[in-house]
User: Fold these one by one.
Assistant:
Number 1:
Amino acid sequence: MDNKAVVLGTNYYIALSAIRCLGVHGVKVVAMDYSEKDTYAAKSKYLSERLIVPHYKKDTKRFIEFLIDYAKKQESPPVLIPCHDLHAEVIDAHLEELKKYYLIPQTEPGLWTKVMDKGSLYQLAIEHGVAVPETVRLDDENFLEKVETIVKYPCIVKPVDSPSFVAKFRRKLFKVQNREELEEALDKAKNAGLEVIVQRIIPGFDDHMYTFDAYLNQDAKVTHWSTCQKYRQFPINFGASVYTGHKYVPELYEIGAKFFETIKFKGFAEIEFKKDSETGKFYMIEVNARITNFNNLLYKLGLNIPYITYREMTGAPLEPKSFKEDQNLVFWYAYEDILAIRDYIKSGQLTFKEIFKSLLRPKAYAIWDWKDPMPAFSYAGIIMGKVFRKIFKTKD
């Protein structure tokens, strides 16, 4: 295989999973990051090359120039794999230029950003008949009246640009109970220069969160797919997957495949849904245009998304694959799940018995791998360092 795979980012387990998924098949994997700090994924034995690059956001021009200069030196065009929303946004903004030197499944500039942006996604969903939670924009007439009569309290103040919001506030959204809290949340967003929308909370516990994960080929047809059910997330109620299992839900395929194929999406994408506990109706919550954080679960199931991408982009696509029955396997990000369990118990949402029973299921781990242990040891060192610093700061 002459084509290398360039994986962006090494300080998160999504990139680690991507590196492993490609490396096990003998693909030469190159990791690029702007810093060596906390880059535990770079300790993987499956990594062939590691490069420090300009910051993708603070110095975008030089970052793009670096990518292009690197690709020009290669015998064959590398496959480019973003592992963070911000990476995807930057690639999307320079897609036409980068596609001259890299193999990237998406062909329509701006589409990645369009589905990640909550405002434009809401409009896309409405246009294509996909249910979304009732939403009010700040520039709507009678804004406060609509919030109180259509959305109602409690509700959520949600960012249009999630990555920037999370970087600023270290959370995915604000949950507000009344007008006073709403106005306070809106002020925080305004002062940060971030656009937000106000949305109804779909009733149901965290296990009413589901996903449709799919790979679409260059004809924009779904070839590989799976549906999963979240059981726990962190932060609880409005966070990322920390304990998620495979669950066959054919209705999600019907909704998700039609949506992605209609908008001519190509490559991997994931729709997060929430099932209304009162009506059973599925609502689209968001779309991820980069590899999902429980990618290792998909890999263990037999859906190696990074390698599926690599093979198609290098002209040797793999056979279509999906599952029509439940697979007894869960993704587990132990560190954040422990934090989530603490909060679920503290808030009375789960019991020790329920948690203990769930932990007995076979697991696909976020970081640990017997065949590639060094990233886990590196990660453990990072966590221990944080704990010691916290203790020292407290004593100080």
Number 2:
Amino acid sequence: MSRKSKKRSVRDVLVALLMAISPLIAALGLTGTSATTASAASLTEVTNFGSNPGNLRMYVYKPDSAPARPAVLVAVHYCTGTGPTFYSNTEFARLADQHGFIVVYPDANVSGQCFDVSSPQALKHDGGSDPTSIAQMVRYTVQNMNADAGRVYVTGASSGAMTTNVMLGAYPDLFKAGAAFSGVPFGCFATTDGSGWNSDCATGKISKTPQEWGDLVRNAYPGYTGPRPRMQLWHGTEDDALYYANFGEEIKQWTNVLGVSQTPVFTDSPQSNWTRTRYGSAGAQAPVEANSFQGVGHSLPESGMAARAIAFFGLDGSGGTTTGPVRATGSGKCLDVPGFSQTNGTQTQIWDC
């Protein structure tokens, strides 16, 4: 069944999802900053960027401040959204003006404006559908805009967050890190009947072991032995579109993929309803960071969160790689500084590597 001829029930579900994410759309409109007021640069559509099995559109924002070899951020919109809307109503373009990276905005050019994260083609490296189109956008940007292939990142909200999980899982060779705002694990939304919607996943009914989740990612690109991208996760406890249970499943998946313990090495509360945990390192660019918001629904990112994602990537000038803790070869213990704090007198942590 083609993606343009989905069953009526799927369209009904998409309508319900639209109702669920309306607070997100409103929040983005209130908190976003249009980059057009901050720079002479403008959003540009790119055509003929390579094979495009998902029939997506590609928009690029390259700020005037971009250096000779800029980093790249792929910013993926939610269902019912568009690339230009995500550009105008989120903070990524303004941050690009500030820090000099390119932003690529894929556009799901189909009814419902959701990205394919369900089909077997989407869940395989260069298998086809939307993820392959997005991968081609990245390759085009690197080859034709002199971008730095070693500093490519991806983020997204809702359908875009699910796509972020898929891109990190199927294309670890292209991305260094991702930030998923209200998503689900790689492979959770998988279907084989041509449907683009998986209700069991959306409602948090699918649970797997860390190994099972990790195997789904590893099997997406058989034979790949290179480094795996880091992951930053964001979710509200009252999410009624993509239930909060998916947050825990994402943590299980990415800690397994990155080979770190499910027990956090750092936990804090940046604000009253916010719990932040880091896995594998206490630093601000840990292998996995998870951010949970008590009482918050399907309305992320909120104002200021995009900047924290940029910091996690290292695009704010703090560096895009994880050097990790100091390791003692004799004892096997690691020494780390909580939160990469530079405050005099900060107590270091010693823990099992």
Number 3:
Amino acid sequence: MRDREADGSQEAGQAGGAAALDLNLLRTFLAVYRTGSFTAAARLLGLSQPTVTTQVRALERQLGRELFQRQARGVSPVPHADELAARVVEPLDALAAVAGPGGAAEDHPPEPVHLAGPNELLTHSVLPGIAPLIDRGVRLRITPGLTEPLLAELRAGHHDLVIATFRPRGRALVSTPLSDEEFVLVASPARAARIGGPARIAAAGPAALHGVPLVAYADDLPIVRRYWRHVFGRRLVCQAAVTMPDLNAVKAAVTGGTGFTVLPRYLCAAELASGALVALHAPDDPPINTAFLVQRPGALANPHVTLVRDHLLRTARDG
């Protein structure tokens, strides 16, 4: 035990010495750790890829340990890299917040905040509430898209915050639950009447929808398949009559009488309240999906990223 403690003290001393001797090496290490790639870290830091590789190797020689395992695509941290990242992330991020990328923070106005997420959620739940941020001088650059590619871009430094439809794996990104969305099976009043309404669905189950056109987000029917599995306990065997990778467009088609679909309740609450859409089923346990607000810890060096993050979390909590 004494030898192990001694080794741990020596490692801590080495890491502390590396930080005291050259913070740039640790800054580069942390960028590679967060992005999982020398190339992505180079873009994030504004360096060449060979420079990043050289700096990481210099730090590995200084510590006497390999920090990353090289893979066909990118790199993965070894356990010692996890330990080193945990020790240096807070002081390096705090230093970046004070100094900024080019000197004293007060000498440079904060950079725009790059926020990304699902188009429908951004349009419905985020954009209507950004006025207080803009009044405080925040500049926003908003990108719609699917969660997986947006998270890859976040790791590469292209975004500061991403609203994700699932929690990302790994420790390089920090995620916080943002909001829950409930899914609803809906159709227009005329189409619902032809089906027999919610009573028919309750009695006959999904068989009542046999032959009714399905309108969906994509051919693989991710939202509808999840609803079938969770609510009806069976596999969906149906092809979409219409697909459109925009839930607002799906809602418009179904409101016009094209067929049925499954939508997040927040997106169709107004139509359900006005009668433009009818909920075809009211299960005791509707499927719920949690959205997460995901950030690169280093992005908090920009104080406006913190403003946007806290605003989104507060708005979701109060809403």
Number 4:
Amino acid sequence: MKLHYFQRYHTKENVATANTMLLLSRLYHYSTTKFFQFLKSEYFLDAFEPEIEFRLQEKNLDSVPDATITQESFKIVVETKLSDWFYEEQLVNHLKSFGDAKHKVLITIAPEFMKQDKRNLIEQKIRENGEKGSSPVIHINTTFEELTNAIQDVIDDRDYEMKEVLDDYLEYCYNDGLISGADSWKYMRMQLAGATFAFNMAENLYYDKSERKFRAHDYLGLYLKKSVRAIGKICARITAVETENGMVYEAESGALTKERKEAILRTIADSTKYGYDLKTVKHRYFFVEKFYEMDFKKITPRPPMGSRVFDLQQILGRNEMPEVSQIAKMLSEKTWE
């Protein structure tokens, strides 16, 4: 049975808040450098350096101490909602929480962004009610998905422990409706293909253990030898496992057709060449309409150690995705790190 880091099966805001704070706490304890990198990139920008500074021979008016250790004061106040249900009075009252902090950030988090007119009104109230003579309060409105994206940006393929924590947080968010699959159209999930690449291409499918969780995505990429070599648009996801009563199939999306059942059986037979147990261990089969070959090169050393999700909207600069064959051509002209 898989153990989870985050609470499940609750819809109360305090659970969403507790789980989000636990995620940030885990990132901090895993790597203070990555935690502060996350804060600077998302919330403080170039306003200040939140890390502790170690200085030698720092002069003051009357002396020169051998060394000093300093950190500028900052405070982040967080308000989470399960929908865009923020209201002015509560957020204005939160301004009293900042005290004498030099740098102040109010973060509002929900499954969706605030409507612009509401955000403008709230930020006007924040400016009007900020403490006179003190530093202004910066308001950052974000979503649970944007927060996970930002953390994903500061960890890498070898941060195994933190990737596992983040994956579990994503699963919690999907289960509790904090992240919808509405923007899956722009994501490509890259999977390591290796020895199975030719089979995957021929059958237009990829398989993985069913317990592995993932961000909703419409496209699947296959990685081999320093490059994402193929891309396909997912048309069905089906799980399968052999029981004492025979094969049990479950269609998570798309149709459970005779042809797809037969493809799964061929896949199970092929997997024995590599010592995989697809019969008694439940696996998920991703069917694509067609894999298109491409050459989306990784330009940094060392191969990735697991899956990775790419935002095609950002990479291609498109608000709508073209045909998959065209995406393959466009990605072949680009690189990634």
